[in-house]
Write a structure and sequence with these properties.
This protein is mainly alpha-helical and 323 residues long. It folds into 3 domains: 101 residues, no CATH class; 69 residues, no CATH class; 119 residues, no CATH class. The longest helix is centred in the N-terminal third of the chain and has 21 residues. The chain is globular. The relative contact order is 0.10. About 2% of the residues have low confidence. The protein binds iron/sulfur cluster (SF4).
Length: 323
């Protein structure tokens, strides 16, 4: 793989940054337009398109479009757009990594100080790195992992790539604020407003006012409000809970539109499916095993939250314990 190819695949690396500086390319209207397309594809498809650039000049433009995209998002300061873009760029890089040699994977991993070791045929990673970048998914919970001398045993090469994907996403979420960009960047940021969620949580339903739902649901709703990604089980649990509470489907769809990888068609399909099947809200013990319980309510089921007194509810939401 040539250095330029590497930079196109992984435009967030220090090598790509250096290549861009060396090229002397300026942020022109064309680059801003390419950047806007890059972000729009990310928002529509949930993944940034892979490059089809053939000539070196196109390849440099592609890398520059990444830099310009960050400027647009840095100026927009919109958490939803930034988080959605972070997910899409990290998925693109992950797709590339799936087909790369170990050498390239380690080179990208090195950008985030992710170092793995092979011992007796096992792939090991330091616990603190694992905790920093592993997905919020029950499969990756530390309690489901083999530990030895401060290292976690990875089950496959793919898991290593998922951790790198997590590191890329975190890096993308930390876009620096851009205060006075060129006019074309400001116009592009304005054009992205059509992608913002139409309805904010506080406009949706009185029944979701603070204190009306248990701490675990409150936490998931807060994550949605901040446009954070939610793992599959968390989405499913929240949907089943809200359906169980009788929330209209349109309002649930509006809430889910805050997710950075929101896709209306898939969301509606999954919600309709959950409603048709009439799934029961899981017991607290099950939610605990999924890593989604965050308080000691002692109510057996989240649906019993309404039976608690006001003082207990307030205490649980504040401290995680009953008074
Ligand atoms: S105890 Fe039950 S209701 Fe309370 S936070 Fe945990 S799962 Fe939610």
């Amino acid at each position: 793989m040539s250095q330029l190819e590497f930079c196109i695949h992984y435009p967030f690396t220090s090598v790509a940054k250096a290549a861009l500086e060396q090229s002397g390319i300026a942020i022109s209207d064309r680059i801003v337009e390419l950047a806007l397309q890059r972000i729009k594809t990310a928002l529509k498809e949930g993944k940034v398109a892979k490059s089809s650039a053939l000539h070196d000049s196109e390849k440099i433009e592609n890398i520059a479009s990444y830099a310009a995209a960050r400027m647009i998002l840095g100026f927009s300061r919109n958490r939803f757009l930034i988080n959605a873009y972070a997910v899409a760029e990290s998925k693109r890089a992950s797709d590339y990594l799936d087909g790369e040699s170990d050498e390239i994977i380690d080179k990208v991993a090195g950008e985030f100080n992710i170092k793995t070791e092979e011992k007796n045929g096992n792939l090991l990673i330091p616990v603190h790195i694992y905790l920093k970048y592993s997905p919020r998914d029950v499969h990756y919970r530390l309690s489901n992992r083999e530990l030895a001398n401060g290292y976690v045993k990875l089950k496959s090469r793919h898991e290593k790539i998922r951790l790198i994907e997590g590191a890329i996403k975190k890096h993308m979420e930390k876009i620096p604020l851009v205060k006075s960009p060129p006019e074309s960047i400001k116009i592009a940021a304005e054009k992205l407003k059509e992608f913002l969620p139409k309805i904010q949580r506080q406009e949706i339903s009185f029944s979701l006012a603070s204190g009306e739902v248990p701490p675990c649901i409150e936490k998931l709703l807060d994550s949605l409000k901040k446009h954070e990604n939610l793992p599959h089980q968390a989405r499913w649990y929240l949907a089943v809970y809200l359906i169980g509470r009788g929330m209209p489907m349109e309002e649930i769809v509006s809430l889910y539109s805050n997710l950075p990888d929101y896709n209306e068609k898939i969301t509606r399909y999954q919600l309709d499916h959950a409603k048709k099947k009439g799934y029961a809200v899981p017991a607290c013990a099950t939610i605990l095993t999924w890593g989604l319980c965050c308080a000691d309510c002692k109510i057996g089921s989240p649906l019993n939250w309404q039976k608690l007194g006001k003082a207990d509810r307030e205490s649980l939401l504040k401290t995680g314990r009953r008074i």
